[in-house]
Automatic annotation (TrEMBL):
Residues 1-21 form the signal peptide. It comes from Gordonia asplenii. InterPro entries: DUF4822. This is DUF4822 domain-containing protein. Keywords: Signal. It comes from the Bacteria. The lineage of its organism: Bacteria, Bacillati, Actinomycetota, Actinomycetes, Mycobacteriales. Residues 22-72 are annotated as: Disordered. Residues 22-49 have a biased composition (Low complexity). Residues 50-72 have a biased composition (Polar residues). Residues 68-186 form the DUF4822 domain. The keyword GTP-binding does not apply.
Amino acid sequence: MRIKIVVAVLASVALVTGVAACSSSDDGSTSSTSAMSPAMSSVAGASSSTPEMTAPTPSSVAPGTPSATLASTPWETTSATDQHGMKLALTDKNVANYVGFAYFKPDGTFTMFTLDDKPKMHGVWSVSADGKTRTITSLNDAGKVAFTRQSPIVTLTDKEFVYRTFPDPANKSVYVDIVHTPTKHQAPQG
């Protein structure tokens, strides 16, 4: 069991650090918590209050890849739907954490802001080579890992980016799709 956990953690770290073929939600996720998973914490010796992991190195985006599509424009959260296709308010408790402006840069770094331009998070990102998973690693002010989140991608085109979150990570039948559309909104400076 421990070996399987270590292998899974090492595979996740490899993906985040760009050892996978291509590099990359805020938001969406197999783990929609704002702290490291217990497995990651126990193996890495880290916790959500005192992260010990160092930041992965961002990787540049290759042209023509799903990563290039994500990096091609700033994104704004514009809607959310549940597993039945019902619209959810952006203020819904299962949506609000994922709402804002996202800037995925071609150098593999990202910044996110709330809709009223308050800093939300920053770090490194990647998208799997097959375009099915986005990974973000949020960094604290000291440059240490605050959390890593992998999110299934539902749609990724130049007109829409949708990823899936799970309010209860153990129940994949209940989910929320977070919908983003391109925006001309510029990232706040400061």
